[in-house]
């Protein structure tokens, strides 16, 4: 998807108008494609008319133009419902994870003036108007403080927070009406939870607080590096941090096996600490949230907008689940999944068994004796096939609890990155210390 500067529609009416216009263009595309196929003597199906490359490109381009929740919901669907969506739609929505259109300079200047006042330039000796990165909620700029310190300035698109509820509803309606989202899939609960999560992500003061929490958790651990928040310049719509050097995490594909293994070991180790000690998990699996400083040999952690706090009962449920999976105790697995929030709706015995089989499959790296070789494993393919079979063949449309969905996205992202880096990680030895004691003593409890 090409990246073009375009003004972010800031008002609800203009955003709704963009989506209504999109629906009209999709319908027009259907008519044109139908006419072409009829002229060839073919009787086209509605699904084939909808899923033309031109129509799918229209959907993706419009969501990228709107940014915010409209784009984020496309990202969410592409990751959580990929096996349920038509492959062409899943592919185009997946592109939304990588790029958004940055704001034009005039609109950016208006945002800066509104947040910092008319004389906002006094804080900097240099401010680069061309963004380093543009995502769904905001874009990041490089700047130099008036004391000479290099900064990363994360600026939220105007109108994003106020439009979250309507954006999510409008995009979901568009996908349903157009037939691009299967009628059988009930995502209402997930969409409501997505609204809450998106509002948290759009609160940069909350993100700053989470970043500072992680800095305290990892203050004595030199394997990790995090930016520092400049509190005096940070607002609800602008997050100002120290600039941290590093290479994209995927560049490690060219590193030695030992270095790749070490970095993925650090990521899995941090995940278990998040779940069992901090009970605060950064749930966004985007690879762009990680950099690697080759000089210092440090893993750089970025973006804490998608942090999610979990209750003790949730962490304990996963402690029991992992323990039960390691010992092939199916009855205990059922108890753990019930505590986590699964099986809250009526479910057939064969559907429950299919869920258990899927969990067992996902726990394969945890049960493996020694280092699990993600590079040669076909686990990702088997998980996707099992998920598809559960949804399609078992007709299991019940949406798992939102807390679990966001956590599973993080785990899936770690598995995917480990496979990309062809890493070998002894996941079992990292997990075992958290399974030895019957109750978890967490950092979160210690701070209360």
Structural class: alpha+beta
Mean pLDDT equals 79
- Share of helix among residues? 40-55%
Q: How many distinct helices?
A: 18
Largest sheet: 5 strands, antiparallel
Would you give an account of this structure?
This protein has 18 helices and 13 strands. The protein has helices at residues 12-39, 46-50, 53-66, 68-80, 87-94, 105-116, 164-178, 188-201, 204-217, 257-278, 312-326, 330-340, 349-362, 364-367, 379-392, 402-420, 427-431, 443-446; strands at 124-127, 133-134, 138-145, 150-156, 224-225, 238-242, 247-248, 280-282, 290-293, 298-301, 307-309, 372-373, 424-425. The strands form four sheets. Strands 1, 2, 3, 4 and 6 form a five-stranded antiparallel beta sheet that branches. It is globular and about 65 Å long.
Summarize this structure as a short list of keywords or feature phrases.
single chain, 448 residues, alpha+beta, 5-stranded antiparallel beta sheet, 4-stranded mixed beta sheet, 18 helices, 52% helix, globular
